[in-house]
Amino acid sequence: MDTTPSTPNNTPVLDALAEVLQQRRHAAPDDSYVAALHYKGLNKILEKVGEEATETLLAAKDAEHGGLAERQALVAETADLWFHSLVMLSHLDMDHRDVLNELARRFGMSGHDEKAAREQ
Ligand SMILES: N=c1c2ncn([C@@H]3O[C@H](COP(=O)(O)OP(=O)(O)OP(=O)(O)O)[C@@H](O)[C@H]3O)c2ncn1[C@@H]1O[C@H](COP(=O)(O)O)[C@@H](O)[C@H]1O
């Protein structure tokens, strides 16, 4: 039986969020956090992605030996990181489907094999 996943088509939260992020491209910056990010431009969005990545790795270190609160904090920071990454993609006319397609393409391919293929 072929267990290779097809491109995911059941991602309602991500689908809905991608639509909102696109609608915010031309919304008033005072009314919307996402519109304000788009208005400030790619550099500001990338600054937020970097900030959230750092906060996520600090939360992961705390979660390693922490309890439920630290694990919940890691989930919250990861959500912030995903969210700002999705804003970045949206700013460049891309979305989660591009990333899910790539993960589906890679599924089952050993990371070592994939790296070796890249180096040829
Ligand atoms: N998922 C999110 C989401 N996650 C995090 N955030 C915001 O991301 C910001 C990150 O917090 P920070 O403290 O790092 O940033 P900040 O201090 O507010 O901003 P800076 O001055 O540092 O740039 C907070 O303002 C959060 O509210 C989000 N803002 C919006 N969404 C989604 O986007 C939709 C559209 O939001 P609006 O554009 O605001 O309507 C919402 O309905 C949600 O579904």
Automatic annotation (TrEMBL):
GO annotation terms (biological process): L-histidine biosynthetic process
Highest taxon listed in the record's lineage: Bacteria
Cell compartments where the protein resides: Cytoplasm
Catalytic activity: 1-(5-phospho-beta-D-ribosyl)-ATP + H2O = 1-(5-phospho-beta-D-ribosyl)-5'-AMP + diphosphate + H(+)
InterPro entries the record matches: HisE, PRib-ATP_PPHydrolase-like
EC number from the UniProt entry: 3.6.1.31
Assigned GO CC terms: cytoplasm
MF-aspect GO terms: ATP binding; phosphoribosyl-ATP diphosphatase activity
Database matches in SUPFAM superfamilies: all-alpha NTP pyrophosphatases
Keywords in alphabetical order: Amino-acid biosynthesis, ATP-binding, Cytoplasm, Histidine biosynthesis, Hydrolase, Nucleotide-binding
The keyword Ion transport belongs to this UniProt entry's keyword annotation: no
Presence of keyword Hydrolase: yes
Recorded metabolic or biological pathway in which this protein acts: Amino-acid biosynthesis; L-histidine biosynthesis; L-histidine from 5-phospho-alpha-D-ribose 1-diphosphate: step 2/9
HAMAP family: HisE
Similarity comment text for this entry: Belongs to the PRA-PH family.
Stated name of the protein: Phosphoribosyl-ATP pyrophosphatase
Lineage, top ranks: Bacteria, Pseudomonadati, Pseudomonadota, Gammaproteobacteria, Oceanospirillales
Gene: hisE
